Amino acid sequence: MSWIIKNYIKETRENETGAQVYPPGLRHPVAFIYPNVYHLGMSNLGMHILYQMINERGDSACERFFLPDKRLQQEHIKSKTPLLSLENQRPLADFDVIFVMLSFEMDYDNLLKVLDLGNIRLRAAERNQREPLVIIGGPCATFNPEPLAAVADAFVIGEGEETVQHVLDTIYREESKQERLAALAQVPGVYVPSLYTAQYDDEGEFTALLPQEGAPEKVARQWARDIDAYPHTSAIVTSGTEFEDMFIVEVARGCGRHCRFCMAGYCFRKPRPRKLENILADIAKRPERTKKVGLMGAAVSDHPQMAELTEYLVEHKIPFSVASMRADMLTEQIAHALAQSGQRTMTVAPEAGSERMRAAINKGITEEHVYNSIELAAAAGMRNIKLYYMIGLPGEEDEDIVETVEMIKRVRAKMDAVGNKGELVISVNGFVPKPFTPYQWAPLCNVRTLKKRFKILGDGLKKEKRIKLITESLKETVVQSVLARGSRRIGEALLKAHVEGRSLKQVLKEEGLDAEELAERELQVGQPLPWQHLDMGVTQEYLAAELQRSESGKFTPMCFDGCRRCGVCRE
Fold first, then answer.
1. Which of 165, 257, 423, 516 has its CA 20 to 30 A from that of 18?
2. What integer pLDDT is reported at residue 541 of this predicted model?
3. Is the pTM value of this prediction over 0.85?
């Protein structure tokens, strides 16, 4: 083994508290890949939760793999050292099963790099009986697994806590690869792509996905009805992450706000707050080295006992942070609690700068809510404000971007008026249409138009020295859009691009397809979709109705007990 790689693993492990290492041979080895660098992967709470659950079985040992940085990748190649686990420095190819947590479309190619470095053949069909099964889960696997259908032996659709034990039980019970795949296809929430055939018309348009005999026509998303039944904290604390030496605690899962652009709001519905006493018990058991507690969830500020939770943390002098707050849920008490914990930036996501567009996306936040949060932040001593926006939302016009510029200037003026001289950071991304949202049929905004609107924003703010503008690459926005709504044919192009060391855009062009045209296509309600064999619980009729409500700016109230609107709670 290269001493550079050996030293990297040694230093990484020495910097961790909580990793579980079992001598080889005592338990079934289970590999867990997060296809990005350690710094980002160890910030993913889902990976921590499943790591604990796999190790708690008693018969399995979970060992972690990440994408090495570019320098280490070259060292692996130069020294012919295969990718090794952090726990036992075991080669990836030595594992019977490989779990993958896939959160972002831009990590698809990273996964292929990790498999290459681990000497794992990329195509599931080419891996023999002795080679590992590759099982992919996470948000991207849940809403559209098709671009990686040739790579994965199986996908976990939905929340892994509900499925991971059944998957391992099945793999350990069956002997041959064929028997394992056939049995996995019968596990609720498991999709085995090799048991389905994609069909296309003469123009290459997707028309159907046909299951083999015995494979289910629909694969239903699995979700935890009782989230308190599972671990919900960091398994390992380390300074080498986005959240340095932070103990992350999930306080709630899912969001019931019905924002029409948000995949998480539909694929992880319904909203489920954890019991306060269980959250406090988790915090009490945190490792001694913990610097801060991170409160995590899709809608943390919607927790019904948020005030009591933050009050407890302040009273017991436990520093904490929250990733972002809804502007309409921030109170004086919570703002002071955050400031007392050392938080210096209040983060709010208006998403759109005009009232018209906020109504269209069902955000439910007014400009007054944002001003109120600035006042509360200033009074509590938080100097900096960060706002998240999107450009290119369905129905948007140039005038909406002009209004966004004006809103940002008004926010800066409001900060000055309340004596807040800190930094105003504006983070802006291009809107990407996602499956299982009302905007799954909507096009990516024309790239030329997007460029113009980003320029309107940049030009409008360039004289504002105390406003920092951060924007995402439009090239990445296009690739995300192509992959998010892609079929197996897009997956084939992705594999070819990776193997040949070229861009996806180049390979698609060679095959007579234009990446921007694919991303900018408007799909028709009722046409076959590559992800239609999956059942998120939310009905297509409900999504189509929400698309119509978006066009007229009609408000949809958040989830409530006894509601049967979208289909998730129909059981």
1. 165
2. 97
3. yes
